[in-house]
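Below is how a single chain appears once it has passed through the pipeline. First comes the sequence as given, then the structure the pipeline wrote out for it. We keep one example in the README because the format questions we get most often are answered faster by looking than by reading.
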Amino acid sequence: MILSAEVEAIIYEAQSLKEKRSVIKRVQTRLKNEFNVAVSELDHQNLWQRTCIGIVTISSSKVIAEQTIQQALAFVDSFPELERTETVQEWL
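Resulting structure:
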């Protein structure tokens, strides 16, 4: 089973693309290390305070895939500099 989540988020404190990318890089690295998922910035690369992050997991069980994505989303919510605004999940 392959489950993906597209996470729209706002980074209020970012005053430049460099600051935004440092936040995104930290989130991506920690997600990969903690949950063994694939992570990439999908959209809004040239906007300072907006981002769209894609998170993907593959599992033999639908339940495990859902748990992994839910844990990853809760982890994204734990970053105070990032506010998740919209999330779309899709089975592939």
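The first strand starts at residue 2 and ends at 10.

See the next section for the split statistics.
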